[in-house]
Specification:
Blueprint: H1 2-7, H2 9-29, H3 35-39, H4 43-49, H5 51-83, H6 88-93, H7 96-108, H8 113-138
């Protein structure tokens, strides 16, 4: 069990890397790759109905992609430089990953279950990893030569 607690951060790093990849796809593709899934209409139909609405949707998707990239990079840095070293604050900070995934699942579910189910599964996996690694971070440790544990 100790090995799993010690190496569980790799799973969270995979979640963070997935956020970066999804963000890159959103920035690169914009709304085009998911418009029909969400709205049931093509990009041409959306543009004909409201080109300003299409521009707003493009802006929202690409900006969201930038936020995903930033969140993934920051999460990766916390994992690599603090979580891996057993810093309790990093364990608490990583709870943002399942929280973001569950929030995304709730917001995305509009009759198109695919992305919402994926986000919910990712959130559940991240939460499970954090729960498995909890003893490593929540057990009271004595101070070491490096200073207090925390």
């Amino acid at each position: 069990m100790w090995w799993i607690q010690r190496n569980a951060w790799w799973g969270l790093l995979a979640v963070a890397a997935g956020m970066v990849v999804k963000g890159l796809v959103d920035v690169g593709s914009g709304v085009t790759y998911q418009a029909e899934d969400v709205t049931g209409t093509t990009i041409a139909q959306i543009k004909a109905e409201s080109s300003a609405g299409l521009e707003l949707a493009e802006y929202a998707v690409r900006t969201g992609g930038l936020y995903l990239i930033l969140a993934g990079v920051l999460s990766s840095a916390i994992l690599l430089f603090a979580f891996r070293r057993g810093r309790p604050w990093a364990w608490w900070a990583m709870w943002t990953l399942p929280a973001l995934a569950v929030a995304q699942a709730v917001l995305e579910y509009r009759g198109v279950p695919g992305p919402a189910i994926t986000a919910a599964v990712v959130g559940a996996v991240a939460a499970a990893i954090l729960l498995v690694s909890a003893p490593r971070f929540l057990v009271q440790r004595s101070p070491t030569a490096d200073g207090p544990a925390g």
